[in-house]
Write a structure and sequence with these properties.
- The chain is α/β, with parallel strands linked by helices and 189 residues long.
- It folds into two domains: 101 residues, Ribosome hibernation promotion factor-like (Double Stranded RNA Binding Domain); 75 residues, 2-Layer Sandwich (SHC Adaptor Protein), CATH 3.30.505.
- It has four helices and eight strands.
- The protein has a four-stranded mixed sheet with strand order 1-2-3-4, covered by helices on one side.
Length: 189
């Protein structure tokens, strides 16, 4: 598998055994989805978890060449069990994603091929009083239904930012308090 695999640890050290185990299992993901570009595995030990059965956390994030992102997270008392559960969950998400993609795009073109978006962002000085964290995202052109599906696949419950192919603008999809979804459409004056 010619995929970049990054393994990160928090509050623990990764042994060669864990590294080999994770790499071996993750390298088999290309059977399910051949256009995976990057895999990130975050393993952590949470000292402050209320239950001892929730202290070992495994999170797997995959990024595809077509711009999709799939993420899963599992917790248990054993790191290997957490990783295996997260991997199983990710495989189910991949199957669901593949089914949705094949049903929604009959012509086989990706949203990125439909609209080419150039994003050039310059870095500005951060004000330490105001901006605590800064994140950069590549906006993938998609319609509202694809954005809703990506929001669910990423387990983002609050909001999702995307480039709307239909309106040719940046939109924010968000979950309302009543359980329905809202859409913020932007325009430049």
């Amino acid at each position: 598998m010619s995929v970049k695999i990054d393994i990160f640890a928090k509050n623990m050290e990764i042994s060669d055994r864990i590294n080999d185990y994770v790499t071996d299992k993750v390298s088999k993901l290309d059977r399910f989805l051949p256009d995976i570009d990057e895999v990130r595995v975050d393993l952590s030990y949470l000292k402050t978890a209320r239950s001892a059965s929730d202290r070992q956390v495994a999170q797997i994030t995959i990024r595809g060449k077509r711009g999709y992102i799939l993420r899963t997270e599992e917790r248990s008392e054993d790191l290997y069990m957490s990783f295996d559960r997260a991997l199983d969950k990710l495989q189910r998400k991949i199957e669901r994603y593949k089914g949705k993609r094949e049903r929604n795009r009959g012509d086989g073109t990706t949203a990125a091929e439909v609209v080419a978006v150039v994003h050039e962002g310059g870095k500005k000085e951060m004000e330490p009083d105001r901006i605590i964290r800064r994140k950069h995202f590549k906006l993938i052109p998609m319609d509202e239904q694809e954005a809703l599906e990506q929001m669910k696949l990423l387990s983002h419950e609050d909001f999702f930012i995307f480039y709307n192919v239909n309106t040719r603008s940046v939109n924010v999809l968000y979950l309302r308090r009543d359980g329905a979804y809202g859409l913020i459409e932007t325009e430049i004056e």
